[in-house]
């Protein structure tokens, strides 16, 4: 039995609330159970220096966790002078995931940055960030379209993400912290609305997992991400 009493294929309750940041061009408060992340998309009227003159823009992300997002207070990373390796890895993952479904030529020489700030963490902060960031990005692009700032359709597909793992020998979907901290295998899957795989991150915490177990986890993730995409569609309808 899972600590949350969920069935192996059951996700936590998910909600996507748009327009929660007054000044951002697009925003979303995403909740995966007790994991809450505020995603805000900001538009800059210039591309990164290394892209200037190429006629296309850039989509990137930043990620951070509030000091009391977890059980004990963690020091703000600004006090250390630079983000941790974990933070850098997650924000690069979010950025890659978003760029996989954006036609960068359509946004012109501009940059969209999606800030993902974890308000409360209970496992799956990176997957929640990706899922909510897509909604914030969508609304930013809608904002741009209303002002004739796009050269054409910029958003090619949905993108969402979920964690899977093997907990007490059973493949399960959408791990919370209680499961994540004791799972024998932990994996994150990023997938598009059309079923394409953007990224897979999988780690055996103890004994190696088999190819059959990997395919089982992939099947769970495919079903779960499809549900998240439907929720995204409802949120932006």
Helix count, DSSP H or I runs of 4 or more residues: 4
Beta-strand share of residues: 25-35%
Which structural category do the helix and sheet elements fall into? alpha+beta
For the record, what CATH class applies? Answer: Alpha Beta
Keywords:
single chain, 237 residues, alpha+beta, Ribosomal Protein S5, domain 2, five-stranded mixed sheet, 29% strand
SSE topology sketch:
Layout (H helix, E strand, L loop, with lengths): L13 E5 L7 E7 L2 E10 L13 E8 L19 H15 L11 E10 L4 H22 L12 E9 L2 E4 L3 H4 L4 E8 L4 E8 L6 H26 L1
Parallel strand pairs: 4-5
Antiparallel strand pairs: 1-2, 2-3, 3-5, 6-7, 6-8, 8-9
Helix pairs in contact: 1-2, 2-4
Protein name: Ribonuclease PH
Subunit structure: Homohexameric ring arranged as a trimer of dimers.
Keywords: Nucleotidyltransferase, RNA-binding, rRNA processing, Transferase, tRNA processing, tRNA-binding
What can you see in these coordinates?
This is Ribonuclease PH. The model has no long low-confidence stretch (mean pLDDT 96). The strands form two sheets. Strands 1-2-3-5-4 form a five-stranded mixed sheet. The chain has four helices and nine strands. The radius of gyration is 18 Å and the shape is globular. The longest helix is centred in the last third of the chain and has 26 residues. The chain has a single domain, classed as 2-Layer Sandwich (Ribosomal Protein S5, domain 2). It is an alpha+beta fold. Helix 1 packs across helix 2 and helix 2 packs parallel to helix 4. A hairpin with a 2-residue loop joins strand 6 and strand 7.
């Amino acid at each position: 039995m899972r600590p949350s009493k969920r069935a192996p294929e059951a996700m936590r309750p998910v909600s996507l609330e748009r327009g929660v940041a007054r000044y951002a061009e697009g925003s979303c408060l995403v909740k995966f159970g007790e994991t809450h992340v505020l995603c805000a998309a900001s538009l800059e009227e210039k591309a990164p220096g290394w892209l200037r003159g190429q006629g296309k823009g850039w989509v990137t992300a930043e990620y951070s966790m509030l000091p009391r997002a977890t059980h004990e207070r963690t020091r703000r990373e600004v006090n250390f002078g630079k983000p941790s390796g974990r933070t850098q890895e997650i924000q690069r993952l979010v950025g890659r995931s978003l760029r996989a479904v954006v036609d960068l030529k359509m946004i012109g020489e501009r940059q969209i940055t999606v800030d993902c700030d974890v308000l409360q963490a209970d496992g799956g902060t990176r997957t929640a960030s990706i899922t909510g960031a897509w909604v914030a990005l969508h609304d930013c692009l809608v904002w741009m379209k209303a002002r004739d700032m796009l050269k054409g359709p910029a958003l090619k597909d949905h993108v969402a993400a979920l964690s899977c793992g093997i907990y007490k020998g059973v493949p399960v979907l959408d791990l919370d912290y209680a499961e994540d901290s004791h799972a024998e295998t932990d994996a994150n899957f990023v997938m598009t609305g059309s079923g394409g795989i953007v990224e897979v991150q999988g780690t055996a915490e103890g004994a190696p997992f088999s190819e059959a177990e990997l395919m089982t986890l992939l099947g769970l993730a495919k079903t779960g991400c499809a549900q998240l995409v439907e929720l995204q569609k409802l949120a932006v309808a």
